[in-house]
């Protein structure tokens, strides 16, 4: 009869063992949320595991915009953007997003993941090369897997290794894709160096600004704005599930490139459009983002406060430069136990292990929001001190 396809499923024990030990940290049911706090098992906990950087998921204007869209358009577009799923809201959002990031045109996809899949797989043909940082997000990696061209990787933020990859690519079409802010490290890409090397070799540059949009730059327009390089970056991508308080993603660039993607990207053409309430949320969040720069200021103040406290306690926070702060533990089981102890003390973070991060660098990923209070962050630091000392992780 041959080998049973489900054999690997029956043999998978990792999750079952973690559940039995009481350390299983995934698919946790959140029963309520106020943004900076969430309720799990009937108990409120400080939420340091969210990408809601500007705290807009509970902003009254954002919620009101979503409700109005529900009343006007219903709950779903019931089709793809290509056919019956394009609303005037989508077109307006594309225009305003393009203007916001300083590009001629933009295109909205149903998720950030699908944005990277569609853009990379569509642009990188069989005679082309896509070159990526080794710590790029999984959606970029999967987009490369779907592309017909060759994929090359370079060591994290290593310009010499990037140049070696570009030399290997020779006279083929070249796309270099990097995260603006690396989601598990919290550091910022060396975009000035990336751009300079790529221009010497005639390579196009795409920046995934999922964790930089709303966070970096004078107006929050991301990594290119942060470095003053908007005109030298070819494609800017971002998600709506972080600072935009919604779901979806977009790519911005030259009109001709966006138009080509609009008619060739399979993850756009063969996927249902994001619903009316979601795109109305994006438009409202963009307005708040532009009108209330003090939110970004508070976000950075909170990030500096939390990072300073963690370093004073003796934790290894890596090379973070942003509101994403890794607490690097190393061992997987110790990380799971650490997560559980913090959880029981009322602090919620995200445990991350390989392959999401390199082997031996398992961590709790903490992230700040503009709406965290100093009292909440101080409470979290007290619990991090208590648990860290009990487990022998800090002095």
Write up this protein.
It is a single chain. The radius of gyration is 21 Å and the shape is globular. Helix 3 runs antiparallel to helix 12. By secondary structure, it is an alpha/beta fold. The chain has two domains: about 150 residues, Aspartate Aminotransferase, domain 1 (Alpha-Beta Complex), CATH 3.90.1150.10; about 230 residues, Aspartate Aminotransferase, domain 2. It contains 15 helices and 14 strands. Helices cover about 45% and strands about 15% of the residues.
Structural class: alpha/beta
Tell me the CATH topology of the largest domain. Aspartate Aminotransferase, domain 2
CATH class categorisation of the largest domain: Alpha Beta
Mean pLDDT: 97
**Alpha plus pi helix count:** 15
Kindly state the percentage of residues in helix. 40-55%
Order of helices and strands: HHEEEHHEHEHEHEHEHEEHHHHEHEEEH
- Poorly predicted regions: none
Terminal Cα separation, in Å? 59 Å
- Kindly give the count of domains: 2
Spatial ordering of strands, largest sheet: 4-10-9-8-7-5-6
Tally of strands: 14
**Which percent band covers the strand fraction?**
15-25%
C-alpha Rg, in Å?
A: 21 Å
CATH homologous superfamily assignment of the largest domain: Type I PLP-dependent aspartate aminotransferase-like (Major domain)
- Overall CATH architecture of the largest domain: 3-Layer(aba) Sandwich
